[in-house]
Amino acid sequence: MADSNGMSITTIRVDSDVKEDAREVFKKLGLSFNSGVDIYLRAVIRGQAIPFDLTLPEAEAVPSTAAVAKRTPTPRSIAAEG
């Protein structure tokens, strides 16, 4: 439910160290924590995506679909092996 200014209250759970570190960065930028979170959410909406790449280190990377397909036996390959 929104207040008279169209603002709603949202509760999220965040590691307290992460929150404090973010608060410090926002403060250096002249922003409140709420403004920083609002900017992030608007970037998500504008880009229709998380506004940064989500990647795994190479050693932890999930194999591509093509790589998995090469390793996954098909009915034909099983018959050929048999």
The averaged pLDDT comes out at 83
**Unreliable stretches:** none
Q: What is the percent of helical residues? A: 40-55%
Query: Helical stretch count?
Result: 4
* Number of strand segments: 0
Q: Radius of gyration, rounded?
A: 23 Å
Q: Into how many domains do the coordinates divide?
A: 1
Shape: elongated
Q: Given the helix and strand composition, which structural class is it?
A: mainly alpha
Largest sheet: none
The sequence of SSEs as H and E is: HHHH
Distance between the termini: 64 Å
- Strand % is under 5%
Overall description:
The protein is mostly helical. The chain has one domain (16-81). 51% of the residues lie in helices and 0% in strands. The chain has 4 helices and no strands. It has helices spanning 16-28, 33-47, 65-71, 75-81. The longest helix is centred in the middle third of the chain and has 15 residues, at 33-47. The model has no long low-confidence stretch (mean pLDDT 83).
